[in-house]
Amino acid sequence: MSRRLISLNPDLQRLINEGFEVELRSGHLLVHSVPYVNSNKQIARGVIVSELSTTTPDVLGRPSTHQVHFIGEHPCKADGLDLVQIRCQSGEFKLAEGVTAQHWFSNKPRCGYYESYYEKVTSYVRVISSQAKALDPTVDARTFRTHEPIEEDSVFLYQDTASSRAGIQRLSARFKPQRIAFVGLGGSGSYGLDLVAKTHVSEIHLYDADLLRPHNAFRFPGAISRDILDRGITKVKYLSEYYSTMRRGVVAREVMIDESNVMELAEFDYVFLSVDRSEVRQLVLGALAATKVVVIDVGLGLNLSADQEAIWGTCRVTASTPTTREIALAGVPRVDRDEELYASNIQVADFNCLNAALAVAKWKRMSGFYLDDQEEYETTFSVNLNQLNRREQR
User: How far is CA 309 from CA 302, 306, 340, in A?
Assistant: First the structure.
């Protein structure tokens, strides 16, 4: 992907052709060997790090910010005093795996933005290196040394610039080793998949044998065309095809989970369980009780009000881990409540989406992406009360 990005962007190719040491890594542009003066009035070399913004997957746009990070000491003037006109903030900036900067600089053009990455890089090199050139006119950032482009092992078919723009590539990478299973791809499961598919998890396996029906179209993310519904394919086949346009590793398993295959789930790190039959829920939780698999179970309960003029109800997220198995199992429904309105496939995409978002946020806290101060094992939301509750292990 890095080679392709360079070949399709004249800005990057121009920097390389002029001799700058350009490297593309984890959605960042790195320019190595930039000469600067340190506080001892000696010439050292540092690395300018910029975000990368694209207009299409392979074509860079205008830089999204005029700021850059810098790896090295704080650049100084020729007399050893700090180059304060570009100073913004100093500290430890963990931008991506193997990319930690010590400074954050701001050199804003008069118009407020840089038109291109060539303009941005050469402007910062000029400001930082001019002081070094005052001590030694022969020093130059244009070394003509090359950095072999890294063909990163990514599940995505194009660069994840959302993470690099936010400087959270290192946190996003925490999902890479994980293998995830979704059991049940109805409203909540499909929204959960939509959120998880946009992370770096290596594999996502989808277990469901139901066909894609018109009512699913009103509870799934995005818009399903009539042509797709006319194909008569399963929900998981549709979803695996849909997300294959963005990433690899989404696998359709066109089967229902039962006693004959439930132990397949023991191969995964996390299992999102979003089924409407309690016997399946109990089967999965019981079968995985002695494993290290984390099961995140979601459920909805909706009813008509007494005057039948409104709907009230609750959505639930329960995390079953090796340390919360018994207490989690005690809290999930053991019997089906067929009289509830939700069992009639009522169109509540917003409630499905909320239930899925709570489940995925819990998974991200458990994975170390979000800070988890409470470590609750169960969360519920009551729509009529607009109230969120949690239960913690005592």
Answer: 13, 8, 15
